[in-house]
Specification:
Strand 1 and strand 2 form a beta hairpin. The chain is an alpha+beta fold and 575 residues long. It contains 16 helices and 17 strands. It is elongated and about 80 Å long.
Length: 575
């Protein structure tokens, strides 16, 4: 983090930039309070008391939750001022070790924001953030933030802008950098909250901005008096690009997997996710030989379709439906842990293992783009995200889940047929089985609302394209002569990777059983982050996935074919 060369000029600039310190800003001041204290119990998927606070529409649509201009009658505010033993007191205190009220400063921010008309920018979606500790401790909570983000440019060996932040003596040398009790007067905090395109934004371009939790922690520390033990000396620390997430082989060992056939009866079953009361259905797909691809003689075959050739796949179970937001967000935004914390569930081995699987950074927009969440397919994830979800699901359930290979997916889609679609050759019947460009009303639809294929699998044609494990390679000019058994084209470049099945945004040809498409870098075109996220394809509103469970568990040496590799995980930027 680098500060302007002259502290005097900085003070003048700040006076011009922030003439109204008393005005409450939603994103800077209000959003962090709600995300760290309220959203976990008041959002899609967990609507306590019938109240949602994660979107502007929901927050202002309730019974006097927020009454612009009138904080005293707005339950968002007045419930925080009640005696702590009142049953309506918010946020609720069930465990004094973990739960605590809002600070006086936070309550005043909510009061003043509502008094000023409760301005909430359109399109601003709130996400659950971890609850902060009851009191912020410098060595445990603040020192790592400063050492990772600021000290490299502000210590004895490198003093940018005549500012040092490596010791108490130097950090408080200027009266403007850290003003105990006043975060809005403290340049250390204010500059980190500017728009990222502002030339004064800190840390400067080329560095990751502070996370929402780090910003809120820093603010709380200053509000609480900015206690800095005089003995604490800081030194620059490099951000590690090796995540703390569990590596695939370690998880494989911890779950006790052994190569070979599962002992389970090969029948349909319902997989419970006990911490969420959610479940999903898995159907058995008996392996066998089939013609993968489409015949060269078929005039309607797509350019990317493989030429028909003989392939053999082994037994596996496949998800009856595409993975829904309800299931995916248990991992994506850590609702699994929120549910356990809320219900005060004793921590067990499955909890520890699932928590150790890396989670995505918070999405920067609503990744459903307003098309619906509960019962609708999750979309916009990268292949890495889909594979990491499968790894988390395995940790959560104790079963080996993964993405299908392209061969497995097509075998399950064709379901014993050799026609262009699992229902025949005539695309006129497509609307009975698929959501496509002609009937989708320009958005995805609830999973399982069309007819299934002969194996009982829904939405194999349409709704959303589905990730498989393979690298996309153009079809060879000639079909292989030999039988290919359980083929997989292991990825060696980030693009393109294979998706199958067509979507709500495609015509009939893309819904053919043999149709395939490669991912593109353009699927991240709208991503505003630098570097672009490894977790989200903002422009791929038509891509989701479903899971499979092989009847035969792979060996530990093969596991990285199916879960993210160790190199994939090590390349994920730390947060």
């Amino acid at each position: 983090m680098k500060f302007p060369q002259s502290l005097k000029s900085l003070t003048i600039l700040l006076a011009l930039t922030f003439p109204l310190y008393g005005k409450i800003e939603f994103i800077r001041d209000v959003k962090p309070i709600l995300e760290h204290n309220c959203i976990s119990c008041h959002r899609a998927g967990n609507v306590k008391g019938g109240v949602r606070l994660d979107t502007k529409k929901e927050a202002f649509g309730g019974d006097e939750v927020i009454i612009p201009g009138n904080p005293e009658d707005s339950s968002l505010y007045w419930t925080t001022t009640l005696p702590q033993d009142d049953e309506l007191f918010m946020p609720p205190i069930k465990n004094e070790e973990k739960d605590y009220p809002l600070t006086e400063s936070e309550k005043k921010i909510l009061h003043d924001w509502i008094k000023q008309g409760a301005p909430w920018p359109d399109g601003e979606i709130l996400e659950t953030q971890k609850r902060l500790p009851k009191r912020v401790e410098f060595v445990e909570h603040i020192q790592p933030i400063l050492e990772l983000n600021c000290v490299a440019c502000h210590y004895e060996g490198k003093v940018k802008g005549d500012l040092r932040l490596d010791s108490f003596e130097h950090a408080f040398e200027s009266e403007h950098i850290i003003v105990p009790g006043e975060p809005l007067d403290s340049d250390l905090w204010v500059l980190c909250t500017l728009p990222q395109d502002d030339e004064m934004f800190m840390p400067p371009e080329g560095n990751d901005p502070l996370s929402a939790t780090d910003l809120f922690m820093l603010r709380r520390w200053i509000e609480e008096g900015a206690d800095w033990p005089e003995s604490a000396t800081l030194s620059p620390q490099k951000k590690s690009f090796t995540t703390l997430g569990m590596l695939p082989k370690d998880l494989y060992k911890e779950l006790g997997f052994k190569a070979g056939k599962s002992q389970d009866e090969f029948a349909a079953y319902r997989q419970e996710i006990e911490t969420s009361k959610l479940n999903f259905e898995m159907l058995p797909v008996q392996g066998g030989e089939f013609l993968m691809g489409s015949p060269q003689s078929d005039e309607k075959r797509g350019d990317n379709e493989l030429i028909s050739h003989q392939v053999k796949v082994s037994d596996f179970w496949m998800g009856k439906y595409e993975v829904t937001w309800d299931e995916y967000e248990l991992w994506m935004i850590n609702l699994d842990k929120d549910n356990r914390d809320y219900n005060e569930k004793p921590v067990d081995k499955a909890d520890n293992l699932s928590d150790a699987v890396t989670k995505p950074t918070a999405p920067y927009v609503d990744m459903s783009f307003g098309m619906g969440k509960s019962g609708y397919p999750a979309i916009c994830m990268t292949q890495l995200s889909a594979k990491m979800y499968c790894m988390w699901l395995s940790a959560r359930t104790g079963e080996f889940y993964r993405l299908p290979t392209e061969a497995e997916w097509e075998y399950a889609c064709k379901a014993g047929t050799d026609t262009a679609y699992s229902f025949g050759e005539d695309s006129d019947d497509l609307s009975n089985y698929s959501w496509h460009l002609g009937n989708s009303r320009f958005q995805y639809q609830r999973v399982g609302s069309k007819s299934p294929n002969p194996f009982g699998l829904y939405d194999m044609h349409g709704n959303v394209w589905e990730w498989v494990l393979d690298q996309f390679t153009p079809p060879p000019a000639d079909a292989p002569d030999e039988l290919r058994e359980n083929p997989i084209v292991a990825p060696n470049t980030l693009y393109p990777r294979v998706v199958k099945g067509g979507s709500w945004d495609d015509g009939a040809s893309s819904h053919r059983s043999a149709a395939r498409m490669g991912s593109e870098e353009a699927w991240k075109q709208q991503d505003p982050q630098i570097p672009k996220s490894v977790w989200y394809h903002t422009d791929a509103l038509f891509v989701g996935f479903r899971v499979v469970r092989p009847r035969e568990i792979p060996s530990i040496d093969e596991v990285e074919k199916f879960w993210p590799s160790e190199e994939d995980i090590k390349a994920i930027p730390s947060r």
